Amino acid sequence: xxxxxxxxxxxxxxxxxxxxxxxxxxxxxxxxxxxxxxxxxxxxxxxxxxxxxxxxxxxxxxxxxxxxxxxxxxxxxxxxxxxxxxxxxxxxxxxxxxxxxxxxxxxxxxxxxxxxxxxxxxxxxxxxxxxxxxxxxxxxxxxxxxxxxxxxxxxxxxxxxxxxxxxxxxxxxxxxxxxxxxxxxxxxxxxxxxxxxxxxxxxxxxxxxxxxxxxxxxxxxxxxxxxxxxxxxxxxxxxxxxxxxxxxxxxxxxxxxxxxxxxxxxxxxxxxxxxxx
Length: 277
Hints:
Blueprint: E1 6-13, E2 19-23, E3 29-31, E4 34-37, E5 43-44, E6 57-63, H1 71-75, E7 83-90, E8 93-111, E9 114-121, E10 157-166, E11 170-173, E12 188-191, E13 200-208, E14 214-218, E15 231-235, H2 242-247, H3 264-268
């Protein structure tokens, strides 16, 4: 009878620094300052790996347990993009181990008290588009290194206390600072306090009402809904148009689009005339 001493161990680290370790061995393993627990908080399927620059892919799955990966944290998106490392380790001598996977958690699905998460390899970012995009609208993200807009300016960022919430995504405010209607549409909302602290959403609709009341509707709920009295930060939205960059943000010198680029209709239309001259 042949006996193996090889076990698998994996560490998952969230963006906020919280980390968990799991193993398919029947006892705790400890290395790199992490305790790898033998419970069923998470397990991983066999890896599908390829040579070259192909993306490694696999799935991790497990139970939503109170002391490991909770359903509330998954709903809140706190595990999205978490770093994952997986080793094959000799449980009789943990110094004899081999790293077999490094990457991050991708899309997470939930069903009947369990979760299933895609594992994305280190080559996943190579799928992203590279190079300059030639388009009438701006290619920069508001406030990034290309845009260079200082979002800390109170003109573009404000904080308020939530007065009410409907359907988990329609937030009401009273005594809201004076901003024109629609100022925060396409902008960002972040919860600064309460159980939903740190969660962000994108603003779909921004309605200004009489008496300083404001209604902010998100495209989708935050997973963990903020509660009345929670403090919210809102950042102005940008629709990427040149006129918006010029008139709303006074930042046209840093506009990264091509507003005078001819439209596809003009390029394709035969009646556009002789373009040789």
